[in-house]
Amino acid sequence: MRSLQIPGRQAARVARFACGSAGLFVLAVVAWGLVVAVVPAAALRWKAVVVSSASMAPALRPGDLVIAQPTDRPSDGMVAVFRAGQPTRLTSVRSDGDTIRIVNALPDHLTTHRITATNDDGSYETKGDANLKPDSDPIRAVNMVGAGRIRVPYLGIPILWLRSGDWAPLALAVMALVVSARLARYAVDPRFDPWAAPQAAQEPESSGRRTVRPWFAATSMIGATLIIVPLHAAPANAAFSDTTANGGQNFTAATTFCPGTVILTPTADAAVLKEDPNDTHGALTWLGVRGDAIYDERSYLRFPLPSVPSGCNVLSAELKLTTNEYLAGRTHRVRLAAAGWNEATITWNNQPGITGPTVSRPSTATTQTWDVTPHIAASSPTNNGLVVVDSAESTGNFDWQEYRSRESATPPELTVVYG
Question: What burial class does residue 339 get, using C-beta atoms within 10 Å of its C-beta: 0-12 exposed, 13-18 middle, 19+ buried?
């Protein structure tokens, strides 16, 4: 072999080393951010979420990655991550666009706002730091996901680009990582160390077959990891959504996931009366259940059951109704509606049939609960709703009990545990 002297070799080594150091710095910053995000989530089962609105500015900015620690002791002033799709009161949006109240149709969406007060009933008032008004509905402890503990600025921006379809900046970010991974070799390869003594390059005697150098394999793997991991570290339930005036009450669409425990209030409920066979009773503050030779009465309820993926099962479900008027000695059953119905049009004459499992409970003067686990498990995908009936219809003497409807201050509740 013969030695070749290359003019300007030292200057080239310095330039390459500087570029390599810059690339290595970029990789180190991103890698450190991923470690901070992944280790608590994997080892401690904390939740990694991406901020997608400016409702918490300047404390949190869109694209920040927040690590939330599960907590059963929320406190005033804490930045809380919670499920905003399960407010204490639920109604719907009318067809003419007039919003009655907040819509509880997205139980798998997260919000990050600060807890400003704790109510006497154990619920919490929340508000975004950048919002002028507090959130419209309090949250409950069951809605709480965790308390924000770690913030990694800007690491989640590529996830927002991916979810919103901003392909140009996402492509540039990917290219920047690839280039950084390729340049990093100049910072670790001794041949480009500007402080090392110059060495003469040697011309190989062989035909010039190239081998894969260890630095190339290593930096390529690092670059690929840094590209793939952030894009896949964006579960559908890890996005904040503004729910107040600052962001127009926008919710981002999410992929289904197993939601755990959800507490739902009805999107529709109505009583049907045999004595008024063609009248509707969907806007009343009560739901009647009656067994009588002439005046039978039933009540229909439909809840916004979440869409869940394959393998996510109903572990338990409990229906709770608050008594409005009490009549002792009656037994009330819960069954399933056999077909769909509309709160505004359902009557005794056009009501759907009843079907499915039966669960019975004696009447009570306070709050009544039924274990409706088999009912909810059988409700997917049709979700025609539940029906509360007297166990001895067409008997008795005006034996009438009322429960409070969704139009009242204490609406019906359905608690479902998925797993």
Answer: exposed
